[in-house]
Amino acid sequence: MSSETGFSTLSYPALRSVAGETRDDSARIAGHAAGYAAGLREAEERVAARIAELEAETAASIAHGRARIDLAVAVLDSAAAALDARTVPVLEAAGGALAEGALQIAEAVIGSEFADGAVAARSALHRALDSVDVGLVRTVRLNPTDLATLGPEVLAATGVTFTPDPTLARGDAVTEFPDGYLDARIGTAVARVKTAIEEARS
């Protein structure tokens, strides 16, 4: 019988730190949430920047188009003033001819501006919502091609509902309210001017 003592290696089980795992899980969740929130903020900033860019482009195009149209309206006003100031038949005839010529010029300028589909669409949108309370607007009817030209971002930024109306020409618009509507069609505006000229000459 041997008197030597034998030794063996003892193995101790590894104990998991529940608190440490909980902290790791919390850190991962917090990191994921922070990354998601940062991504949302970046997306919102990009959308806001794009909307601002589109609004600036729209404002510039409308300003250019309105300057041309304002010039035509100024010519019409001048013609109407000449018509009102007539004192003799010769001047009356000259005033009538001037008014007719001014109207033809105005129609030509408007037609030239609206040959550009983007300008026509933006002008229609501007006239439909200019000086109106958008909270009272039930819907704005526009030509389907104009709606497509404006795009969903520009339309959404207005805060109103739009309805495609194929009976409207490019550049025309009708704003509907619960108790009436605003006729923003170009043809209607020209007809009003013609009526005013005819009444002034009679």
UniProtKB/TrEMBL annotation:
Which GO CC terms are listed, alphabetically?
cytosol
Domain of life here?
Answer: Bacteria
GO biological-process terms attached to the record: protein transport
UniProt entry keywords in alphabetical sequence: Protein transport, Transport
Stored InterPro entries: T3SS_Stator/FliH
Please report the name of this protein according to its UniProt entry. Flagellar assembly protein FliH/Type III secretion system HrpE domain-containing protein
User: Organism source for this protein?
Assistant: Conyzicola nivalis
Phylogenetic lineage: Bacteria, Bacillati, Actinomycetota, Actinomycetes, Micrococcales
